[in-house]
Amino acid sequence: MPRCPHRRTAKGSHASFDLGSVWLALAAAVFGGFALAGHLAVVIGYGFPLRPGFPVFIQIHGHLQLMGWAGLFVIGISLHFIPRLSSAPISQPRWISVLLWLIGLGLLLRLVCHSTLPYVHDGVWAVALRWTTATSGGARMDGCGGLPRPDGARGSG
How far apart are CA 111 and CA 70, in angstroms? Predict the structure, then answer.
């Protein structure tokens, strides 16, 4: 089997494990997803009337659990193991924290603005909340790989 010199890396050339994605995943799960799940369970369990925001809370809970908890956890573990399995270090490890901040900001904007939107029906605040909710999707998309890389290539995800 021929040797591939471009596949070899010097020992220790990989980026160290960044715990930011794991902590962000835990924060999204505990403070967002689990807290909303507890609220939804109390509302349903004690027979409180379902207000206009109830379906929105279900959507936000699901989104925080899938994108926040599961997604960020998979991203963090993958950024550590996949470069080591392929023997190719991450080309721009300094972008990892920027991407995690974009995903975290997008999740926070979605939580705050989308949960407030059903209670604000018209006016400038309703328009601002709608636009901010839409912008939160852009921040999450950019954080998941839509940003151009410093070498000009596009992200893969």
Answer: 16
Flag whether 86 is in a domain: yes
Among the residue ranges 9-13, 94-98, 111-115, the one predicted with the least confidence is 9-13
Q: Which residues contact 116 (CB under 8 A, 6 or more apart)?
A: 129
50, part of any domain: yes
Residue 118 lies in a domain: yes
Q: What is the pLDDT of residues 14-41, one digit of tens each?
A: 777 778 888 888 888 888 889 889 989 9
Instruction: Please write the tens of the pLDDT for every residue from 87-110.
Output: 888 777 888 888 888 888 888 888
Q: Is residue 84 a part of any domain in this protein?
A: yes
Give me the number of domains the chain comprises. Answer: 1
Q: Are 97 and 20 in contact (CB under 8 A)?
A: yes
Instruction: Give the list of residues 6+ apart from residue 147 with CB closer than 8 angstroms, or none.
Output: 95, 98, 99, 102, 155
In which residue are the tokens 């921040």 written?
139
Alpha carbon distance 71, 21 (integer Å): 9
